[in-house]
């Protein structure tokens, strides 16, 4: 009998990040691993984040407040 790991839910937010049920480990193209222990992790889909692979809301339009 094989035990299958529980599936992780990934939600793609139009114009925003991918939300992944955590904790997660993300393997980057250079072979390093980024880890987050949060219960939901926002992964950057636009590559504008200074915290890539994690989202820092850089995808949001800049607006000035009066």
UniProtKB/TrEMBL annotation:
InterPro entries: FeS-contain_CDGSH-typ (IPR018967), MitoNEET_CISD (IPR042216). The keyword Ligase does not apply. It comes from the Bacteria. Keywords: 2Fe-2S, Iron, Iron-sulfur, Metal-binding. Residues 21-65 form the Iron-binding zinc finger CDGSH type domain. Gene3D superfamilies: CDGSH iron-sulfur domain, mitoNEET-type (3.40.5.90). This is CDGSH-type Zn-finger protein. It comes from Amycolatopsis magusensis. The lineage of its organism: Bacteria, Bacillati, Actinomycetota, Actinomycetes, Pseudonocardiales.
């Amino acid at each position: 009998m094989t035990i299958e790991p529980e599936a992780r839910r990934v939600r793609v937010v139009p114009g925003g990040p991918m939300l992944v049920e955590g904790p997660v480990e993300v393997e980057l193209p250079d072979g390093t691993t980024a880890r987050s222990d949060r219960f939901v992790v926002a992964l950057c889909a636009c590559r504008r984040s200074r915290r890539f692979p994690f989202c820092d809301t850089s995808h949001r339009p800049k607006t000035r407040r009066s």
